[in-house]
Amino acid sequence: MIKVEALKKQFDDLTVLESIDFSVKKGEVVCLIGPSGSGKTTLLRCLNLLEIPNNGTISISNKTVVFDKKAPTKKEMLALRSFSGMVFQGFHLFPHKTVIENIIEAPLTVKKKKKLELINEGEQLLEKVGMFEHRNKYPDALSGGQQQRAAIARALMMEPEVMLFDEPTSALDPQLVREVLKVIEKLAKEGQTMVIVTHEMNFARRIADRVLFMDNGYIIEEGPANEVLEQPKEKRTKQFLQLLD
Length: 245
Ligand code: ADP
Prior knowledge:
Membrane topology: Peripheral membrane protein
Bound molecules: adenosine-5'-diphosphate
GO molecular function: ABC-type amino acid transporter activity; ATP binding; ATP hydrolysis activity
Pfam families: ABC_tran
InterPro entries: AAA+_ATPase, ABC_ATPase_HisP-typ, ABC_transporter-like_ATP-bd, ABC_transporter-like_CS, MetN_ABC_transporter-like, P-loop_NTPase
Keywords: ATP-binding, Cell membrane, Membrane, Nucleotide-binding, Transport
C-alpha cells in the first residue's frame, strides 16, 4: 500500500529525515514512536505532501512520485494526496461550518456526487464515530474529543486508502482520550490501513501490527509491537522506553 525509499527532508540547513525506508501493507496499522523532534510528524506530513521531500520516492497504492531537484507536478501531488486522509493534533475543523457541513465540504468540491447523497454518507460516518446527534452543531459547541471524532469522520469521507494520524489525542484532556482511541481501534478492526504517530504506548501495544521507532531522522528499529515495545534490541529504543516508565 505504501512504500517509502531513501526519503530525505531538510528545512534549510537542518536535515530532519536522513534516509527513511519503510513500507505498509494493506490493512496494516503502523505506529510511529520516538522522542520529540525525531522527525515523526515530518515523515507523516511528507506522506500527505504537506511537506515536499528533498529526495527519495513515495509510492501509495501503485502511484509513485520521485523527489529530486524538480518539484513534483500538481497532478502528481493531487494523485498522491487523494490516497490519504490526515487527522491532526489540533482537529482543524472549519469554525464557521457545522459538523455535517465540515464533513461534506471536501467531497462536495471534488467528487461528482449530489449534496443529499453526501449528507447521507456523512451521517452514516458520524453514526460510526458516535457523533450523529451533534451533526448540526458548530465546532466551538463541542468538546475536543468530539471535534477530533468529527475530524476523523471528515477524513474518512474521502474514502482514503490510508489514514494518517498525527498524535490524535495529544491536545485532549485525559478523560477525552479514550473516546478518540476507541474510534481509531474500531477502524483498525475494520481493516483500515493506518499510520499513527503516538505517545500512547499502551494504545500502540494494543492496536499496532508494527511499531517503528524513530530517532534523529532515522528509523532505528521496527518490528511487531510486542517485540519493539517489550524486548527492544537497540540501545536507543530501550532508553526511550525506560524514560516513559
Ligand atoms: P517529532 O514529530 O518527532 O516531534 P518533527 O517532525 O515535528 O518531530 O520535527 C523534527 C525536527 O524538524 C525538529 O527539530 C523541528 O524543529 C524541525 N521542523 C519541523 N517542521 C519544521 C519547519 N516547518 N521548519 C523548520 N524546522 C522544522
